[in-house]
Design brief:
By secondary structure, the chain is mostly helical. It starts with 15 loop residues before the first helix and ends in a 20-residue tail after the last helix.
Length: 68
């Protein structure tokens, strides 16, 4: 993770369905299971390509991979 001096805290509201989807993703994750916060970080990093890898999202296009 980056230096704490460059981190920003966000407060985000999720619907019950979104929390259920996050929890299901956590359930499919390898041990040790991530917390909800870490799961959201991992999902965002992976989808936006923020980890240095190519993004898995094509803007404006919904595919089966976009459905949790």
């Amino acid at each position: 993770m980056s230096d704490s001096a460059t981190e920003t805290t966000l407060t985000i509201r999720f619907t019950a369905d979104q929390i259920e989807a996050i929890d299901a993703w956590i359930g499919r994750s390898a041990e040790p299971k991530p917390s909800r916060e870490e799961a959201v970080r991992q999902l965002i990093v992976g989808r936006l390509g923020a980890d240095g890898h190519q993004s898995t999202v094509i803007p404006g296009m919904v595919t089966g991979r976009d459905i949790v």
